[in-house]
Batch of 2 targets.
Target 1
Amino acid sequence: MTDATTTDQQLRLFIEAIERLNSEKQGVQEDIQGKFAEAKSQGYDPKIMRQIIKLRSLDRQARLEQEMLLETYKCNLGID
Amino acid sequence: MTDATTTDQQLRLFIEAIERLNSEKQGVQEDIQGKFAEAKSQGYDPKIMRQIIKLRSLDRQARLEQEMLLETYKCNLGID
Amino acid sequence: MTDATTTDQQLRLFIEAIERLNSEKQGVQEDIQGKFAEAKSQGYDPKIMRQIIKLRSLDRQARLEQEMLLETYKCNLGID
Amino acid sequence: MTDATTTDQQLRLFIEAIERLNSEKQGVQEDIQGKFAEAKSQGYDPKIMRQIIKLRSLDRQARLEQEMLLETYKCNLGID
DNA sequence: ACGTTTGCGCTTTAGC
DNA sequence: GCTAAAGCGCAAACGT
């Protein structure tokens, strides 16, 4: 077996692994859409649901930023 | 327990289920990035790899389209 | 004057207008970096400054999302 | 007025100046998108336009590089 | 100077 | 089919 073949084989494995993960991700995405559809069939508005999810995400991010900022201040003041 | 409470509870469950799936999706995405990083450390160019994956995906789509078309014909002709 | 020439001229004007706006944008970006540099020379940490700005932006976004959500609820309940 | 207050005030001014410049930048960005929308409504493909602008930009960069190189030589030779 | 990491812009996809 | 939003890739900025 030549080096070139070995190398190509390695690349092929990487590519196939990534493609498999992409399929997995797509599957999860379909599950998400299924959940939205299910909720919609129960009378919930998907648009509002997305806004709520977005808002909760923003709140989480803001809180994490707060903590990071505090941490940075502490580092700058030599408090560890 | 009032109807309103039941409804809110149901909505909450949908929201949390979707948020959980979002986390799952994010995890898979991180795995993908890990694979790219691993490939990069082996000397492969991630940008080129993405192009390859895209091309293979397009080919796959074309092939699936062909298969769907064939299936449609078969259905139309009563062959199954 | 042919139609083709007229069309090309119009496209050219669009392109040049956009390129000019891009230059303008780049100029503003340089002003921003100048401000960061000025602040840094006064002893302020650009990293912390960026975090503060980011945080204030997140807060603004969250507030806007809140208002949008409220508005959507009102629409759904037929309150205008 | 304490030093701390002075410092905070100065930081605040920097932050607000940068936020104002960010708004300005965002405004220019919106103008750009407006131009693209206008071009699109005239039948031009924004995607292709972006490719053209990118190409012209690359050419310009190469030209600027040449000019910088020339400048470097001039400095090295004491010509200014 | 390089590598890492974050922010910004584009592309694509989902909803109307 | 179009508009709007979310995810992704790229590039610039920071730290080492």
Target 2
Amino acid sequence: MTQPRPLRDDLGFLLAVSRARVIPAVNGALRGAGLNVRSYSVLALACEREDVSQRELADELRLDPSQIVAIVDGLEDAGLVRRHVSTTDRRMRAVVATPEGRTVHAAATDSVVTTEDELLGELSPTEQDALRALLTRIADGDRTRALT
Amino acid sequence: MTQPRPLRDDLGFLLAVSRARVIPAVNGALRGAGLNVRSYSVLALACEREDVSQRELADELRLDPSQIVAIVDGLEDAGLVRRHVSTTDRRMRAVVATPEGRTVHAAATDSVVTTEDELLGELSPTEQDALRALLTRIADGDRTRALT
DNA sequence: TATTGTTATACTCTATAACTATA
DNA sequence: TATAGTTATAGAGTATAACAATA
């Protein structure tokens, strides 16, 4: 409790400020596609995996399951994903991307990558990989890993 | 637009999820002191600097100036900071920490550091330094640097 | 004219609790 | 008894616009 370290050395603070710079820019890039970072993330996972449960989505995105409902509702209304009851566990309503959802996702990914490259372009590819590895460890931290 | 990279390689996504893991934990650690990450950050800058303008705080924290008002109001009501009109520019209402504010800040910093160490403890000190350096570059990115 | 601080407002995001249907 | 999904609600965070005082 002597001379406290400066705020700028606080990793939580740096994480918050970095996010505050990047996320609004990415949201702006996604606006044209009718998406934002969260709905884009759900769509991306639906495209990458077969039959994702909403519980899995909640864990992966660190959101409450109740928040996933509205996001999937929006994507379903836009025709980008569909829900279907699992044949093996009728409690589960698996989310799957439609062909149109895959098209939208591919285009959206292009604009996300472009936008992030502008913001992170100061970092070399090596540095970006290092950052990815470090953030992945923080993000995963305490996960059950009972997932896929 | 061929095979889009997985969501887990997206730095914006990793930033958002990492923050979603760290910030609530830090907010929890600060709750006892009547603070959260944002009010703690304002208090910390008021302790580190002499006479910070609210505009500077907004830039540093990447918040809108209008949001700073409520945060400083809360800190002032709690007796942790005071506002005083600048003698050189009477538009400016500089924020300065009170002695009690400094005491609270020192104790709060202790619990923040403890909490973050639990979450980031998997990373070695070297890795934490590397992460700090990388995040600082993203956070600063486009700053005017006309500040202190 | 431009800038600092302020008020007001609407919108998004987050956190919590309770409920249903299935297991 | 536990889990997947849902609804409802309140609170925190964010984005915009407009205004007064001062430069």
